Amino acid sequence: MTRSWWGWGRTDRALADDECVELAALIPGLPGRPRAVPRLRDLEVPPSRLGPPSSLPLTTDPAVRAAHSYGKAYRDVVRALAGDLGGAPDAVAHPADEDDVVRLLDWAGTAGVVVVPFGGGSSVVGGVEYRGDRPWVSMDLTRLDRVLEIDRVSRAARIQGGALGPVLEEQLRPAGLTLRHFPQSFEFSTLGGWLATRAGGHYATLHTHIDDLVESMRVVTPAGVHESWRLPGSGAGPSPDRLFLGSEGTLGVVTEAWMRLQDRPRWKASASVTFPDMTTATTAVRAISQAGLHPANCRLLDAGEAALSGASTTGECVLVLGVESAAVPVAGRLAELTGLARDAGGSVAGDPVGGAVDAADAIDAAGAIDAAGAIDAAGAIDAAGAWRAAFLRMPYVRDGLARMSAIVETFETACTWDRVDELVATVQAEVGAAVGEVTGAPGLVNCRFTHVYPDGAAPYFTVITAGRPGSEVAMWDDVKTAASEVLGRLGATITHHHAVGRDHRPGYDRQRPEPFAAALRAVKATLDPAGILNPGVLIDPV
Amino acid sequence: MTRSWWGWGRTDRALADDECVELAALIPGLPGRPRAVPRLRDLEVPPSRLGPPSSLPLTTDPAVRAAHSYGKAYRDVVRALAGDLGGAPDAVAHPADEDDVVRLLDWAGTAGVVVVPFGGGSSVVGGVEYRGDRPWVSMDLTRLDRVLEIDRVSRAARIQGGALGPVLEEQLRPAGLTLRHFPQSFEFSTLGGWLATRAGGHYATLHTHIDDLVESMRVVTPAGVHESWRLPGSGAGPSPDRLFLGSEGTLGVVTEAWMRLQDRPRWKASASVTFPDMTTATTAVRAISQAGLHPANCRLLDAGEAALSGASTTGECVLVLGVESAAVPVAGRLAELTGLARDAGGSVAGDPVGGAVDAADAIDAAGAIDAAGAIDAAGAIDAAGAWRAAFLRMPYVRDGLARMSAIVETFETACTWDRVDELVATVQAEVGAAVGEVTGAPGLVNCRFTHVYPDGAAPYFTVITAGRPGSEVAMWDDVKTAASEVLGRLGATITHHHAVGRDHRPGYDRQRPEPFAAALRAVKATLDPAGILNPGVLIDPV
């Protein structure tokens, strides 16, 4: 496959021009034809300021540098489409092994060159670019892509940090095991990136973040290599790994981790439940989240989101429930879950689907689409299936709409149940108002819950509206500022699983307790004394 | 109740002299009568070196200082019985609120006085004493004992750090909620202590440590008050709370936390399964731990442990399984678990017991014994019941045997499944050999699994042998050194849930990655620049 240099994912999945026009017809006020995608060779990539030592795996090739300029947020795509590559890295490093990583950091520390770790490059928070004035290198880690060791007894594997989702799953498959971490970016993100950003994955409840799947980590810091012991649990001091989980490339480069694996599911079942309104649905999801039944999927779509994805067009909210197990049948568990949903005012739509997954490998094997398809349950064509297909297509749709000058972006958060109703209503009202103010027209602010907890939920919002050609990034930034303000005011986290990067810094600074900020600055000064690692992310550059 | 100043728990539960003699008859080589418990008024408590400002809640009363000299490890009990109070604190502080904590830390920082936070004082790792030369204050936090706020919707409560287990449960009961954290020390330990030491609790699987029950924390550090936001989940940078969880009083004093609560169980069921040997039993427990069924109890006793507790006297290993739920009946879940155990070679002993807990409050309400009784399941008299009673009585038995110069102590660890068989066998062989070498006679080295994970287990060892009067502490220290050496050599953690304190420092230093140690020292210097907080624990005093 060929990765898009300007947009999400694979070039062969990008929307054709007529598809862009067709989709844009649903949003009033957009131009009649898509902006052309610039040819990379026509664009100006600023000259590299580096003459790196020839013994290091560095390239200054302009096309490679261009493809490492940004992550894949809406604002990144728009900037790339506009041909703005002024912030391209001076060089891109492709370390082949951990020694290369050590040598590169040593060189950069001495030379005062900034290093930004780059996994799959799918950051949507400005986590893989650099906004300062120093020469900088994007360190692409995808050559560190091997599963080095599998412990079948403990169901764990030692995996290199640069392995993309499908690459590591392919190597685990012969052992009958899976990491089962399927973020939307699964094809285009790496283990190290997931760990560095505390990525959210397959499980809607219980083990929602990659954090919970970690046994131990190996991290190259400028001050030395950190390697924790492989342990199933420990109470020996503060968890060493938890300091690096979420450190977003500011403290070191994740070169390896021992990860907890799962047997491939043998039974799956899913059901869709509809609710007349979001408040009723939220009460039902809360009851489910507090029942200790731990569904693998528990995804609530509000009416707008259900309509957008094709899960329901009748103005109802849709809850998609999924259960899976490698050990025991799950029909009974699903019945318990739908029973709770029904008790709380839901209508179970049709019969539950599922059963023994005789063709589990067929479901999971065919590549990223199908691996991500496992997010839900057995492959019946129902609301879950419709939503799943839309979920994977959404970033490509966003890119197509961006070419039409639409504004299409998401943001996500989490808060405790006592505040969920107010949060969702307030965000939709205030962000909707901000959209109106910025664009002069109403827009969509849809909501879904991606993950739920006994004590709260993670609402995820999608904004769709018409932008003005040339002003889209500024307009979105204004909307985003309004969104971050309301989240902070209501005590909801600035990010549940998209990470902080550069875009969430103001919200993160507001949320982070000051003694912890001081502690983090002290850690940074200790592990990265030259301040070369991803400066501007999490903490201010020194 | 009256707390014992020298031994575990309540004075009215201590063994009478004739009970001590009766128990000691089972261990060859002990004296014929127990050492007398010294009267506190006959002992010399060194004069206080402090003349504290009268505005602070400090006392220099010798009896109060004596009772805050040690934790409750075997070596603490023996030292107290020997009348050794040379290390008593110069004063004991009893802050009534957070302001008092702030003022005490300010004063201590200025005066260069060491402060050791003290919750219930049940540390078994030397975590609440001080072994240096500076004047020191034991800060007893049990006046901060209130549940300040309950959020019924999110099932969470804001609780002060000094609340003992029964004290906080009593305040949660009217809301129908429970923290459901029942360490063996439940009656004699506090929320703040649990958080500071990453205590292990009720659940044998899944949420094994208090860490998982935390929504947010409020910690007074010498550099300011840390307060994290109440969130059900977040991906915003490294988790702030995880830095303070396990910090063991070295970075700050936990004054409050928002804790996740449970509904009181409505259904419980339990079963006992026997196995011919530990290897077969371990395989079964591994299968159970990897099935995603999350039993509340999954406690494996080896033959020696089963015999000692009265759970079985036929030389078999005993697995106690327990399931509970507030939402759905659990008989089916228990049947799935016993089915897995049977498939792996176990014999299910008798009929499972359990059902709807009509009298759940009766089971849980009557005080600590019954609250801890909830560790297993409904109150049938079976192997689980026998073991449970022994579990709660064990510390008192230890104290009685200590008066007979027996050596009775435990240590615990965790490792991945691939190493569990080797670890258990090697520990039993090498620690058994060390016992023989030190005492000249064989002793018991029993093993149980207290908590299990999909990727490993937490073996817990009990050592019982005859000591020589006057040399017990030195003898135990030699055995413990051998135990720590084998754990470290096999890559098993120095502590799964007893914490590091002072006694586990060498093992912890070996286990902790050096970059993380450097980070922790930097954090310490930032948050506790005068180095007054619990110096010697986790990191060296500055």
Automatic annotation (TrEMBL), chains A, B:
The active site is at Y460 (proton donor/acceptor). One of its GO terms (molecular function) is FAD binding. One of its GO terms (biological process) is lipid biosynthetic process. Keywords: FAD, Flavoprotein, Oxidoreductase. It holds the Pfam family FAD-oxidase_C. Substrate binds at R398. The record marks R299 as: Important for enzyme activity. Its cofactor is FAD. The keyword Oxidoreductase applies. PROSITE patterns: FAD_PCMH. FAD binds at P117, F118, G119, G120, G121, S122, S123, E248, G249, T250, L251, G252, V253, V254. Residues 85-264 form the FAD-binding PCMH-type domain. Belongs to the FAD-binding oxidoreductase/transferase type 4 family. This is Alkyldihydroxyacetonephosphate synthase. It comes from Blastococcus haudaquaticus.
